[in-house]
Design goal:
The protein contains one helix and eight strands. The longest helix is centred in the first third of the chain and has 25 residues. Strands 1, 2, 3, 4, 5, 6, 7 and 8 form an eight-stranded mixed sheet that branches. A hairpin with a 2-residue loop joins strand 7 and strand 8. By secondary structure, it is of the alpha+beta class. The protein starts with a helix and ends in an 11-residue tail after the last strand. The chain has two domains: about 30 residues; about 100 residues, Immunoglobulin-like (Sandwich), CATH 2.60.40.
C-alpha cells in the first residue's frame, strides 16, 4: 500500500512539474531589440475627416526580436517648409516579430498643411524603415 501511494505521488509530482515547465515555456520573456530595429511600413494614407486630417500607416516588425517603447511621430509642413506641428502615436506594448500594427494621427485641418513626414523610434535605439506597397491589416481583437 505504501509503495502504491509513493508511485501515485511520484506521478502527480511529475505531471505537475511538466505542466509548470510547459506554462513557463509559453510565457517566456524575450529580450527586445537593442540598437537599430527593422520595420516595414506602408506609404502614409492621409484623408480629411470632418475638421481633422487623419493619417494612417501600417507598421510591421521584421526584426528578430520584439520592439519595445515604439513611437511614431507625424510632422506637417507648409509650402515654404515651415513646421506646423503634428501628432504622435505610442504603442502600448512591445511589437512582436511579424506583428502588424496601425498608427493613426489626427491633426486639425488647416489650409496651410502642404506635406507631412512620419518618423519612428523605440526605447533602445533608432528604426530603419522600408516602404512596401501593401501590408495585411491586423485583425480586430474579439
Amino acid at each position: 500500500m505504501v509503495g502504491s501511494i509513493r508511485g501515485v505521488a511520484a506521478v502527480v509530482v511529475a505531471v505537475t512539474l511538466g505542466g509548470v515547465q510547459a506554462a513557463e515555456a509559453q510565457n517566456k520573456l524575450v529580450n527586445p531589440v537593442y540598437g537599430e530595429a527593422q520595420i516595414q511600413i506602408t506609404k502614409p494614407a492621409t484623408k480629411v475627416v470632418g475638421s481633422d486630417v487623419v493619417t494612417t500607416v501600417l507598421v510591421k516588425n521584421v526584426d528578430k526580436a520584439p520592439i519595445a517603447g515604439f513611437v511614431a511621430e507625424e510632422y506637417w509642413y507648409d509650402r515654404a517648409g515651415n513646421a506646423l506641428g503634428g501628432g504622435s502615436y505610442r504603442h502600448p506594448k512591445p511589437i512582436q516579430v511579424g506583428e502588424v500594427i496601425v498608427c493613426t494621427f489626427k491633426t486639425p485641418r488647416s489650409t496651410k498643411l502642404d506635406r507631412n513626414q512620419v518618423g519612428f523610434s523605440h526605447a533602445h535605439g533608432p528604426i530603419k524603415k522600408t516602404i512596401v506597397p501593401k501590408l495585411d491589416a491586423p485583425k480586430p481583437a474579439k
